[in-house]
Amino acid sequence: MSMFCRQCEQAAKGTGCEVVGVCGKNPEVAALLDLMMYGLKGLAIYADKARELDVRNTVADMFLIEGLFTTVTNVDFDPVQLAGKLRKCYDLKEQVKAMYETAYREKNGAAAPAIADGPAAWVIADNLEGLVAQGQAQGVKSQHSDPDILSAIEIIIYGLKGMAAYAEHAIILGKTDEEVFAFFHKALAATTDGSKGLMDLVGIAMECGKLNIKVMEMLNTGHVEHYGHPVPTKVQLGTRKNKGILVSGHDLRMLEELLKQTEGKGIDIYTHGEMLPAHGYPGLKKYSHLYGNFGGAWQDQAKEFPNFPGAIIFNTNCIQRPADSYKDRLFTWGEVGWPGAKHLTGWKFDEVINKALECPDLPDAPGQEILTGFGHNAVLGVADKVIEAVKAGAVKHFFLIGGCDGAKSGRNYYTEFAEKVPKDCVILTLACGKYRFNKLEFGDIGGIPRLLDVGQCNDAYSAVQIASALAGAFNCGLNDLPLSFILSWYEQKAHVILLSLLYLGVKNIKLGPALPAYLSPNVLQFLVDNFNIGQIGTVDADLKASLGQ
User: Fold this and answer.
1) By three-state DSSP, how is residue 243 classified?
2) How many CB atoms within 10 Å of residue 26?
3) Residue of 278, 235, 252, 227 lying closest to 455 (CA atoms)
4) Are 371 and 449 in contact (CB under 8 A)?
């Protein structure tokens, strides 16, 4: 059985995974995920048509986002779990189809035009083998024969996947928006519309970047309303003698519920990967048993998790094949899935808590402390100090060095770049790319730390707010600021943030380690011509270019 996937930075040979995914998914899982995208397109087609008649299905709106999130890299590897989601996708598609057809008949006095083929006409297979066969027939390359249009379609789809991840976190915090739901339907349906030309699809991709800013704002608002604005906070990287639970992922609401349920039980909660910024939120740091951060970026979990003797839970993507040494104490939650791992649903975490209580204590081994919590509110609270430092020449340049980390060679570039940034420059960072250098000592400039951890990948919203405030203070555009974007990417959440930056007109972005395999030569040239986007080169050359030397 073969496969083809090129949605992440680590696409095999720079073109695509054809035997097994670098992420770990096998051809069976790849086919089921391709079928999920096919089914979601059918659901989107009918949801889009129904919205034109002012008919909505809230459950379908939510599921479309959940389904897209499921297909993000390193989320769900469980065929049985995926089969259940595919059945729900099909049933909801049929429900929305019936709602649309009823509304059309009531409005027009005639039956709605039939859709005889394509994803809207999909009829689900009745067993796992049949689902896999259906998925194999609906792979990436089946979407269009023209390489440029196929590239634009993939850009839209991967943008929607990334935005769906942020939207689901926002929804969990009670933040929804009709414009966002409508765009998901419209944009996904448009990828099946043969009348759309290349520039039509480019326009939709830019609109995806625009809507993602709104989604990240919704998520930021949800975080702040629930937990307050992040504040600069020292985070312990060592451990203390107690029972422990390690939380990996992005979802703060899940972490909050776990903190509530473990209070007073002799269990310390540790963050991992993108959960590190949780320590900066007053509403979370008030729990004294939110003790520290264990390990580094997602790709190191296989060598780090065997050294964590407690229970481990993933609440979003970034899971890798677990080793036998810790698989029996690993749990998944939300859209995450791994065959054989215990999957939790809802908001009760008794099973992971009981497992933690059965496990040995962590060692008493205090370690280094690092700073997080420099969201836009914290930075803008000292904006006058920053502006004066720039005017006085104490701060010459800002570098945003961040994004997704990964295991592929070439990512030491970001460590070297951060180390070589001149001492009169400030580094903003976010997402797990910061693990390449966030344990290094950078000092400060007049009391302003030279390394400011803005937060998770979705906190690119905060970085944009900081940049916009600086542009306003200096009465200039974003591209006129002494600010350079040096970005690493791995999966679709980073992809949609890039679309947001392009929508804002940000130019001269350096991206790496490799450029996306799904960019056709002509589409790449369009990005170069309009945004001067480029692949990272050597540190010295890129640093000189950023500083205008």
Assistant:
1) strand
2) 14
3) 278
4) yes
Six-digit token string for 357: 């209580």
Contact 408/10 with Cβ under 8 angstroms?
yes
**End-to-end Cα spacing for the chain:** 52
Burial 90-115 (b: 16+ CB within 10 A, else e): bebbbebbebbbebbeeeeeeebeee
Mean of pLDDT values over 392-406: 96
In 3-state terms the chain splits into helix, strand, coil percentages (rounded to 5) of: 50, 15, 35
Query: pLDDT tens for residues 10-68?
Result: 999 999 999 999 999 999 999 999 999 999 999 999 999 999 999 999 999 999 999 99
Residue (of 337, 368, 518, 502) closest to 435 by Cα position: 368
Average per-residue pLDDT in the chain? 97
Instruction: With cut-offs at 50, 70 and 90, classify the pLDDT of residue 409.
Output: confident
* pLDDT tens sequence across 365-387: 999 999 999 999 999 999 999 99
User: Burial of 45 by CB count in 10 Å (0-12 exposed, 13-18 middle, 19+ buried)?
Assistant: buried
Task: Give, in degrees to the nearest 5, the angle at Cα 327 between 349 and 6.
Answer: 100
pTM of the model: 0.97
Instruction: Describe the strand order of the beta sheet including 369-372 as a list of residue ranges.
Output: 342-344, 330-333, 311-314, 243-248, 267-272, 290-293, 233-236, 369-372
